[in-house]
Design a protein that fits this description.
The chain is α/β, with parallel strands linked by helices. It has four helices and five strands. The protein has a single domain, classed as Rossmann fold. Helices cover about 40% and strands about 20% of the residues. The protein has a five-stranded parallel sheet, with helices on both faces. Strand 1, helix 1 and strand 2 form a beta-alpha-beta unit. The longest helix has 24 residues. It starts with 10 loop residues before the first strand and ends with a helix.
Length: about 140
């Protein structure tokens, strides 16, 4: 039986220099139904994005990475692909200052369920996310 609600896959680009954090984030978001592209730093993320033939819907990036930080990466990604949604994450609260008001900041550590909720809210927009909350748990 073919599902009636078949949507094209939603691809996320994850840029995180901590291998264990990157693996955990990718596992959690993959299990939530998203397709993953991953990179160890901003430069690798740019290369991954360039080589990817499909659409990238969302960038989830650590703020501080050795080669090209998250803010600079997000600026470069959005300059080339303006529709990409940006979520930046950091364990350092001083990184909360974000260059673009349309971006979202997530403080590490976070619960996997919180991350999935934030990603879905950003992808769906505020009105759709609010409607889903009103419906309650499934």
């Amino acid at each position: 039986m073919t599902p009636t609600n078949s949507r094209p896959p939603i691809t996320l680009l994850i840029a995180e220099d901590n291998d264990s954090v990157r693996r955990l984030v990718c596992t959690v978001l993959s299990e939530a139904g998203f397709d993953m592209l991953q990179a160890r730093d901003g430069l690798e993320a740019l290369n991954v994005a360039e080589l990817h033939a499909g659409r990238i819907s969302l960038l989830l990036s650590d703020v501080r990475m050795r080669r090209l930080g998250g803010v600079e990466l997000a600026e470069k990604i959005q300059a080339k692909w303006p529709g990409v949604i940006v979520i930046l994450m950091s364990a350092n609260a001083t990184d909360l200052v974000i260059a673009n008001p349309g971006w979202r900041f997530v403080q590490k550590p976070f619960l996997p369920t919180e991350l999935v909720k934030i990603v879905r809210e950003m992808l769906e927009g505020p009105q759709t996310a609010a409607s889903a909350e009103e419906q309650g748990p499934l």
